[in-house]
Specification:
Blueprint lengths: L6 E9 L2 E2 L1 H12 L3 E7 L2 H11 L6 E4 L2 E3 L2 H9 L10
Parallel strand pairs: 1-3
Antiparallel strand pairs: 1-2, 1-4, 4-5
Helix pairs in contact: 1-3
């Protein structure tokens, strides 16, 4: 049996002069929970604004786990706190 890590997509603002602290928090939460993270950076104000408009967001980060979407690191933290951990693999 092959272990398949849980995966998440994190889209966050990483500008030359500012890295969103909530995106950093979301990344840390996901990594601590054992997720393999596809960390997607929005590297210009234009990219941030276009992404938010496309997804109907007012802020970033935007996190996707399977078909679930989280519009803040607080939403993600609540979800992770109430999601049982993956069972340990059996030998």
């Amino acid at each position: 049996m092959t272990d398949t890590p849980r995966t998440a997509i994190l889209t966050r603002m990483v500008l030359p002069d500012h890295v969103c602290p909530y995106g950093e928090r979301a990344l840390a939460l996901l990594e601590e929970a054992g997720y393999a993270v596809d960390d997607r950076h929005l590297t210009s104000r234009e990219a941030v604004d276009a992404f938010k408009a496309e997804h109907g967001l007012t802020t970033t980060p935007f996190i996707q786990i399977g078909d679930r979407e989280f519009r803040s690191s607080d939403e993600l933290e609540d979800y992770l706190a109430n999601t049982p951990p993956e069972p340990a693999p059996t030998a």
